[in-house]
Amino acid sequence: MSAAPDPLRSASPADSGPADSDLVRAARGLPVSRTPVWFMRQAGRSLPEYRALRAGTAMLEACQDPDLVTEITLQPVRRHGVDAAILFSDIVLPLVVAGVDIEIKPGVGPVVASPLRSVADVDALPPLEPERLAFLQTAVRQLVAELGATPLIGFAGAPFTLATYLIEGGPSKEHARTKAFMYAEPEAWGRLLERLAVSAATFLRAQVDAGASAVQLFDSWAGVLSAADYAERVLPHSRAVFDGLGGRDVPRIHFGVGTGELLPLIGDAGADVVGVDWRLPLDEAARRVGPARSLQGNLDPAVLLADRATVDREVRRVVEQGRAARGHIFNLGHGVLPDTDPGVLTHVADLVHELTAR
Binning pLDDT at 50, 70 and 90, where does residue 83 land? Predict the structure, then answer.
């Protein structure tokens, strides 16, 4: 009797390697054996094995331990049979590595010890030196070796979202200080986002050079901006992040929350795949983005807390609406909620594969 297939090495049956995986092919708008699926925040707080492993270790400390990063990243791939791993990290990590004093407080999020309040504070922001990322490249190399044909997605935080944390000092609903600074100090704002774009590009290059098969840029809070402000004051810097990858031929995914009115612009920043949150149906998102880019999304994470019949109905709806896109990567419209039953995530991955097998 043959041994059971290893989910880390057989997530997509037609794969000959991560560069030809269903995730990469869908990102490029190529035919796939089935719709690839992964979940934002799949590695982490919803998994009991993650909570056991992380016990007693601070988040940002765990993110800089290659062995912990490797194991935590692999946990959901083993459990759910998803079609990609997403590097276990945090969007503020490049700032921390560069020397900015940031703590991730449980139940709150990133808290900056000394928020930016002046032009001088912007100019004093330390740069991210590539040699400080040896731990990151070690983790990525270990993961690539373990994952086999399953692709690893690297990621970074987008300049605008990182700027909001630096200026607000932590999470914010209104982002009022950020927008006031953006309007009142346009030159300093431009310098700040330029520096953050260089940092994000450095962080992504380190991951791709170590073997990541795709990258995702998270602009979590871009949805607080008007389309005009995004186009003028943010988009050029997000584009600079992707441009900073140079000739590295990996798909680029760009995601933000509440960005339905910004989707065409988010694509214009250089994305191969536009991530869509749960607020906009994928067929309408495909119309807004156009035929030149694939889509990722967009099941409401809260649906996973509902009964199984509701979960199945909503998964089928997302799969059907996703057929309107050039290519579709099934995902949530934001991250996995902490109270999600891991068994439901496994079921969703299986159902998507069942519904879309070619």
Answer: very high
Tell me whether residue 132 is one of the annotated catalytic residues: no
Identify whether 165 is a catalytic site residue: yes
Task: Check if 41 is active-site.
Answer: yes
202 pLDDT exceeds 50?
Answer: yes
Active-site residue identified among 90, 219, 272, 277: 90
Q: Where are the domains of the chain?
A: 18-356
Q: Helices (DSSP H) in 153-185: which residue ranges?
A: 159-168, 176-184
For residue 13, report the phi and psi dihedrals to the nearest 5 degrees. Answer: -60, -25
Catalytically annotated residue among 22, 25, 34, 165: 165
For position 206, what pLDDT does the model report? 98
Whether residue 48 contacts residue 317, with contact meaning beta carbons closer than 8 Å, is answered with no
Q: How far apart, in whole angstroms, are the C-alpha atoms of residue 254 and residue 199?
A: 17
| Annotated catalytic residue 34 | no
Active site residue 67: no
CATH 3.20.20.210 assigned to domain 18-356? The reply is yes
